[in-house]
Amino acid sequence: xxxxxxxxxxxxxxxxxxxxxxxxxxxxxxxxxxxxxxxxxxxxxxxxxxxxxxxxxxxxxxxxxxxxxxxxxxxxxxxxxxxxxxxxxxxxxxxxxxxxxxxxxxxxxxxxxxxxxxxxxxxxxxxxxxxxxxxxxxxxxxxxxxxxxxxxxxxxxxxxxxxxxxxxxxxxxxxxxxxxxxxxxxxxxxxxxxxxxxxxxxxxxxx
Length: 207
What we know:
By secondary structure, this protein is an alpha+beta fold. The protein has a single domain, classed as Jelly Rolls, CATH 2.60.120. It is built from three helices and 14 strands. The chain has helices at 3-23, 53-58, 97-101; strands at 27-28, 38-46, 75-78, 81-84, 86-89, 95-96, 108-118, 122-132, 135-139, 142-147, 158-165, 168-178, 185-191, 202-204. Strands 1, 2, 5, 7, 9, 10, 12 and 14 form an eight-stranded antiparallel beta sheet that branches. The chain starts with a helix and ends with a strand.
């Protein structure tokens, strides 16, 4: 085999390995309105009964929360309690954390993480959040959205503009605090600069 053949074979093997690496993780599509349904969830993180939502959403209940990159089954100990990252799927445009956990909670924090893959860099996007109550979103370790006030869920209530998704896998960390009451919810989606839903993304639950 000559040198050119060896190089060509090597390139082919690397390409095959790259494709297998991508296909090795199950991937999902966003909903038709761009809402992200598939997440890894760590919850509930119980805080003190007199906790303030604005302070809780600011504080890192897990060190370096914006840099989280969990896999399903990973464990984390928070406040002396061991929790497990679990795969969850929203049945509507929003995550309903109390329904997922099958319990009513208050003064609790939940972390939801998903991995967004795109075949090419996507620029000038908008990232839109709704939360009940306080919410906070990081993209690739950068804080893009935060609300400190208690509120009901409203889709697209907070908007980050001029957002870029890198080619390959991007990490989204979504933190939601529950002040109390019946609902603990959050929703997130990408749109283009004109508000059109971006659905040509690949959602996965492994980095």
